[in-house]
Amino acid sequence: MKKKKNNKQRISSGYIFFFAICIFLVAIFTTTAVNSANTPFNILADTIFTPFQNGINKLGSGVYDFTANFTAKKKLIAENEELQAQVDELTIENNELVLQVYELDTLKELYELDNEYSEYEKIGAYVIGKDTGNWFDTFTINKGSADGVSVDMNVIAGSGLVGIVTKVGLHNATVRSIIDDTSSVSAMVLNTSDNFIVSGSLSSMDESGVINFTNLKDTDDEVTEGAAITTSFISDKYLPGLLIGYINEISLDANKLTKSGTITPCVDFEHLQEVLVILDLKEDSEVTEEE
Q1: Is residue 215 within 8 Å of residue 232, measured between CB atoms?
Q2: Is 156 left (phi over 0), alpha (psi -120 to 50) or beta?
Q3: SS3 breakdown of the chain: % helix, strand, coil, rounded to 5?
Q4: Are the beta carbons of 108 and 159 closer than 8 angstroms?
Q5: pLDDT in tens, 178-196
Q6: CA 112 from chain center: how many Å?
Q7: The CATH homologous superfamily of the domain defined by 122-290
Q8: Separation of alpha carbons 176 and 256, rounded Å
Q9: Which residues, in sequence order, are bridge partners of residue 199?
Q10: Is 264 helix (H, G, I), strand (E, B) or coil?
Q11: How far, in Å, CA of 141 to CA of 128, rounded?
């Protein structure tokens, strides 16, 4: 049994020695072949191993490029998100500045209007509600009886008359503007003092941005387009001299005695935000004048 075991060990050792010799010879052959031109090994290398190596190189380059592009894309996405955040922030700031400029312009108009009608006591109010539609024909303000506001007080904004208070709560009030279909104002031409009636018309506002007037007696043909129109002294609710607007069109009626036409209001009835309520009532001012 021991002899068979020794024989197997010798055979195994012989195989190992044989394979070692073969590997040594292949290494020598390979080295010689690589250093020799146009050898079968070089031809085999050029045919098989070189394209394979080139493919590996291209694959490596592709992987590197993909990784680099992916990293660059992630960086661009991050930069884009940061820039977008800055744009959003600047947009908000710009909108706030535009709003502030608009509010300053509105306050400037109210300040100038307050000075123009300085003989009247006034209180400022914000518009907090309105009827449906584009126009501020009937709307709600944030001042009421607790602030001294009462029914029939005149309301102004922009360059002149807005309307009149029709309903009052403790801290709010309803205003009917002169463009409302139910509105009727006794008016006069500023330069001739001719009296007539100005009527609200939402349909005319929708069509041309104007309201209507009737019963103008202009026998001398002195009233022309562009003439300034104010509230008259004979109005029972409106204080005198409040600017309403300017004549847009004028024509002779069929009776050949009176004229009618349209007026462009001096107030922007599509963008009302703040108004002034005149705390003097017409009846109170008449009593004061009589005294």
Answers
A1: no
A2: beta
A3: 45, 25, 30
A4: no
A5: 999 999 999 999 999 999 9
A6: 28
A7: Rod shape-determining protein MreC, domain 1 (2.40.10.340)
A8: 33
A9: 184, 212
A10: strand
A11: 5
The values of phi and psi at residue 259, to 5°, are: -125, 155
> Which residue's entry shows tokens 């029939």?
152
Q: What is the 3-state secondary structure (H, E, C) of 27-69?
A: HHHHHHHHHCCCCHHHHHHHHHHHHHHHHHHHHHHHHHHHHHH
| Cβ atoms of residues 133 and 202 within 8 Å | yes
- Cβ atoms 197, 183 nearer than 8 A: no
Q: Name residue, tokens 């300017």.
A: 246
| One-letter amino acid for residue 23 of the chain | I
The 10s digit of each residue's pLDDT in 162-183 is 999 999 999 999 999 999 999 9
**CA-to-CA distance for 218 and 129, rounded, in angstroms?**
40
Instruction: Please tell me the distance from the alpha carbon of residue 260 to that of residue 198, in angstroms, as a whole number.
Output: 10
Q: Where are the domains of the chain?
A: 122-290
Residue 265 contacts residue 179 (beta carbons within 8 Å): yes
Residues with Cβ within 8 Å of residue 186, at least 6 apart in sequence: 195, 197, 198, 231, 232, 234, 235, 236, 238
Q: Give me the torsion for CA of 272, 125, 139, 152, rounded to 10°.
A: -120
Task: Tell if the pTM clears 0.70, that is, is over it.
Answer: no
